[in-house]
Write a structure and sequence with these properties.
By secondary structure, the protein is mainly alpha-helical. The chain has helices at residues 16-19, 21-31, 79-82, 87-96, 117-123, 131-142, 150-155, 157-160, 166-172, 203-231, and strands spanning 52-56, 59-67, 103-107. The chain contains ten helices and three strands, in the order ααββααβαααααα. Strands 1-2-3 form a three-stranded antiparallel β-sheet, with helices on one face.
Length: 236
């Protein structure tokens, strides 16, 4: 598994989350493994119209890919903050965000015509696609604490219940580099609660956010490479 592979390169100029066959294959290889229940979470690419599909005694799940590290450059309100950021710094950030360490899977099926996890975390004004904040919501979900994404996480509780608790969720998806030794989330910016804006307010804050995000993705890439070398014996 090439953790430096740029998933844009085989997406034909389209969204890699949907159109990169390599990214889809990497997801299938990484997350097809045993659950705490003992069931094997086998992910199939053979179900028409579905990115990844699982059906067993554990349940039926339809998964989609989503980037978990974002440059925030597409947000209109960030333009003034980003105006002073060197173009090269933005490009290197975006390039790293196109490697497997910056991607995860979430349930992709809609329920009662309401947003999926991917959609909700992108639209919520207190999350704005920041994965460190999303992960804090997931942590709070597992211990039954209120959080901005509580409604959508409970809507897909059957999926999150597969991993039983936050520690197992983090380990299963190789997210340990975003959690400290006490099980607390390592935030990309100082966190004082969900009442504050999730967006960096100054160029200095943005560069701090960029550095923390890139450190996480690079560390997760290394962790993914180590995991695949230890657990995968087939070629790609």
């Amino acid at each position: 598994m090439d953790v430096d592979f740029d998933v844009r390169s085989d997406a034909g100029g389209r969204d890699p989350d949907v159109h990169s066959p390599t990214l889809r294959r990497y997801h299938q290889l990484l997350w097809s493994k045993s659950l705490p229940s003992g069931h094997h979470f086998t992910l199939s690419t053979d179900t028409p119209g579905t990115y990844l599909h699982h059906r067993s005694h554990a349940g039926e799940f339809w998964l989609s890919s989503d980037a978990i590290s974002h440059s925030l450059s597409s947000i209109t309100s960030m333009r003034s903050v980003l105006a002073s950021v060197p173009l090269g710094a933005l490009e290197s950030f975006y390039t790293l965000n196109c490697t497997i360490g910056s991607y995860l899977v979430f349930p992709g099926n809609t329920i009662n015509r309401k947003p999926t996890v991917n959609g909700a975390r992108g639209m919520h004004p207190r999350i704005r696609d920041r994965f460190d904040l999303t992960l804090e919501c997931i942590r709070r979900f597992y211990v039954n604490e209120a959080n901005p994404l509580g409604e959508v996480l409970h809507r897909y509780s059957d999926y999150f219940s597969l991993l039983e608790d936050f520690e197992t969720y983090v380990e299963f998806f190789l997210l340990q580099d975003l959690v400290d030794d006490h099980g607390s989330v390592r935030f990309h910016l100082p966190f004082e609660g969900f009442d504050q804006s999730p967006l960096p307010a100054t160029t200095a804050h943005y560069l701090e956010y960029r550095a923390a995000s890139m450190t996480f993705v690079a560390a997760r890439n290394r962790r993914i490479r180590s995991w695949t070398e230890a657990h995968l014996r087939c070629g790609i």
